Amino acid sequence: ALGDLKLSAQDLNNKTVVVNDNVKVLEGPSQGKQGIVRYIYKGIVFLYDGNEEENSGYVAAKATMCEKVKLAVGDFSGTGKDSEPGPLVFDDQPSSPRSPLSPKKPWQSRESDREFNRGDSDSLFAIGQTLRIRIGPLKGYLCRVTGIRRSDVTVKLDS
To answer: Name one GO cellular component term (predicted).
Structure first.
């Protein structure tokens, strides 16, 4: 169903990946990168890593080229002062039942937490940003973002 395309995807081991899962890219141009899933669309996962400089920390990869991972909590391989944290552990369990999948769209997920989008580094658009309209009667036109309020973006046509 169309709803399934946006809420979850299958990783390399056919485990279900949902938003907020920790995922590592195993193949492709983004190989070795790891991050938190922020969006899923048609089997493509959009990962966010705050330490990544390029593309504001976002990486896109096919879900089938990724592997869902879970950082081991309190898992140490030794007891001495030189002991390193344990390796990454693969998550065999489905996502927590305490956080059910929300039917909200990705850009609506944090609307209730903030009144304005200004100053938020996670926002999809920025005031002054130039965009190209992709669908509708104005397809192909260039426009400039003039205002952002929750999930509404106000633009001014340039062309």
So the answer is: DSIF complex
CATH of the domain at 53: 2.30.30.30
73 and 135 together in one domain: no
Task: Clarify whether residues 116 and 88 are in a common domain.
Answer: no
pLDDT in tens, 14-62: 888 888 889 999 998 889 999 999 988 888 999 998 888 888 889 999 9
36 lies in which domain range? 1-103
SS3 assignment for the chain: CHHHHHHEEECCCCCEEECCCEEEECCCCCCCCEEEEEEEECCEEEEECCCCCHHHHEEEEEHHHEEEEECCCCCECCCCCCCCECCCEECCCCCCCCCCCCCCCHHHCCHHHCCCCCCCCCCCCCCCCEEECCCCCCCCCEEEEEEEECCEEEEEECC
